[in-house]
Amino acid sequence: MDESLPEQLRRLPQRPGVYLFRDARDDVLYIGKAKSLRSRVRSYFNRGDGRVGIAQLVERVARVEVIVTRTEAEALHVEQSLIKRNRPPFNVRLRDDKSFPYIAVTVGDEYPRVMFTRERHRRGTVYFGPYANAKKVRETLDVLNRAFQFRPCEGPKPGRHSGIPCLDFHIERCTAPCIEAISREAYRELVDGVIAFLAGDTTTIQRQLEERMRAAAAEERFEEAARSRNRLFAVRHLADRQAQERRGVGSVDVIGLAVEGERAAVQVFPLRDGRIVDRYAFHLENVGGQDEATILEAFCLEHYAAAPTVPPEVLVPPELGDLEALGAFLASVRGAGVDVRAPRRGEKRRLVELAVENARVALEHDATAAETRRRRRVEALETLREALNLESLPLRIECFDVSNIQGREIVASMAVFEDAQPRRAHYRTFGVRTLEGQDDVAAIAEAVGRRFARLRDATDPGRRDESFTSVPDLVVVDGGKGQLHAAVEAIRSTLDLPRLAVVSLAKREEEVFVPGAREPVRLAHHDAGLQLLQRIRDEAHRTAIGLHRRRRDSRAFESIFDGLEGIGPARRRAILRHFGSVERFLEATPEALEGVDGLPAKTARSVYAQLHKAGPA
Questions:
Q1: DSSP letter (8 states) at residue 363
Q2: The pLDDT of residue 370
Q3: How many CB atoms are closer than 10 A to CB 255?
Q4: Percentage of the chain lying above the pLDDT 90 cut
Q5: Would you state the pLDDT for residue 1?
Q6: Could you list the residue range(s) of the whole structural domain that residue 312 is in?
Q7: Coil, helix or strand for 90?
Q8: Which of 2, 50, 557, 598 keeps 20 to 30 A from 286, CA to CA?
Q9: Are residues 352 and 403 in the same domain?
Q10: R_g of the chain, CA atoms, integer Å
Q11: Prior bond of 130 cis (ω within 30°)
């Protein structure tokens, strides 16, 4: 504990507010809110506090920073924004699980897209989900596209570089904003309808479509009436697939919570007009030692801050204590009153019990799946230790690969697995500097040598890199005996690591070569150890290929731009951002070139003329 910390604790005010625990490097460890800052913060440092994980947090705290607020509800707002900005490691947080499918609406784009995704972090995007079944999400998007005809093309701007509308426009699956067949305002209205439908408001959309159908039929615009009718049937079909009615319940969110150790599961059942429109499943981390009210509060801060709508009523499990501050926070997000309560009887209590039961099932399933994955990882590591005659389990494995085309743009990569899982923050790439021409063996030697030279220099603060400070238990190189020998010699000439295991994995027969052995080690194709080696080899290959392609495209762009008049560094970057590849740039029409931000129309026409010089007649 820092010497000044006791003095800081004595000076804490007895007022509501937010507290930040910082370590010796002034990084934020934890952020919380309190009715009384003095009593809440001091409770962490009481000798009798036996909550899980608190001891690890307290021993790292060097400084306490506080922000005083007028009310506890105001403190919740400050806490939510600070957590979002700092992402403290000890705070309760939603797990970043890309296996959950979402529906995303890119409202930040001029003409928004409605799309399937497994990520949830982009700004200017509204997310609906997570959903339990990816197939149903795609079916829902298909029906929504037939009903609303939003653009299916990718990218922030609609259309193709040719300026010609795609087939979706001709089969009435897109309103073609790329050729201005629909105004920006009308397209926004269409997207607002999609958002309202996904948020649970199906009645308004059905009524609007029915009115349009009847009006078009009355004015004898029968084709338009038929289109409205088909959209109405599609929307009704999708709405009818939703879950059973709950009469008298209205529009509420029902939240179920289950907690076990360091993990928690939350299930949210959104009901709109008495109908369960979906089920959202979440898993939380860092919940050890927290009471259920704090966990629920932390979840609501993150979930509803990004939710498209907040209902007027939120139902939660009983015995969670005072929920007034949470209700005030949700009311400010919604812009109207929100009643957060634990129902005692009737249909609403049964709904909460259903949500809690689903949360328990999800938590048990998650624990079982996690244990299964852990056993598979242990089995893979045990298999490698036995097959390769290693002294210990290869907990940290580093794999090296090389990528080039005919000796140009030679690059190498290092992929890292810890506990049989990717440690992507420790992946590194190397531009091979000393070679002229194609020589994969020499390239491996240079990359491995440079990696272990960084291990030798780990004590130098100016060159310290966390990915190079640990000694691996196993080094894998992609290739055969030549690459293996080069890697062993590179390590031996750099550092004295006689116990470091080095092997190579040859692609053709998936054979594992070991130093000093004439014959390779052959593992069965279904062997967990071989599959682990293949995974890390594929990761290294993917990383090397990615760097190689970026360098190749950059070099190709540079060589093309060198001969173009009127294109300087700024315009070169603008063109590169707009087209992304040499092929798309070379295929661009004059209209597409004029669409590049920062490129004048006259210069765009000049560039097109230079790229498409006509030969003699």
A1: H
A2: 78
A3: 25
A4: 16
A5: 44
A6: 252-365
A7: coil
A8: 2
A9: no
A10: 30
A11: yes
Q: Are residues 484 and 361 in the same domain?
A: no
The pair of structure tokens assigned to 611 is 């790229």
What are the residue ranges in the chain where pLDDT is below 70? 1-3, 47-53, 95-100, 130, 132-133, 161-162, 237-249, 274, 276-277, 405-408, 436-437, 458-462, 552-559, 563, 581-582, 613-617
What are the tokens at 297?
Answer: 């509060």
CB distance 278 to 304 below 8 Å: no
Other CB atoms within 10 A of residue 135 CB: 9
Q: Which helix (H) or strand (E) holds 327?
A: helix 324-334
Helix 440-456 and helix 481-494, axial crossing angle in degrees, nearest 10: 30
Q: What is the CATH number of the domain that holds 592?
A: 1.10.150.20
Query: Which helix (H) or strand (E) element contains residue 430?
Result: strand 428-431
Q: What is the DSSP secondary structure assignment for residue 406, as one 8-state letter?
A: T
Extract the tokens encoding 230.
Answer: 């088909």
C-alpha span between 560 and 287 (Å, rounded): 55
| Nearest CA among 490, 489, 486, 491 for reference residue 504 | 486
Strands (E), 486-602: 501-506, 511-513
Task: Say whether both 75 and 118 belong to one domain.
Answer: no
The angle subtended at Cα 324 by Cα 321 and Cα 327, nearest 5°, is: 120
CA angle 145, 147, 153 (to 5 degrees): 20
Residues 199 and 197: their CA atoms lie apart, in Å, by 5
Q: How many domains does the chain have?
A: 5
pLDDT digits (tens, 9 = 90+) for 135-152: 778 877 887 887 788 898
Q: Please give the mean pLDDT across all residues of the chain.
A: 82
Interatomic CA distance for residues 284 and 280, integer angstroms: 13
DSSP H helices in 129-249: 134-148, 167-170, 184-198, 202-218, 222-240
Tell me the HSE value of 460 on the side-chain side, using a 13 A CA sphere: 8
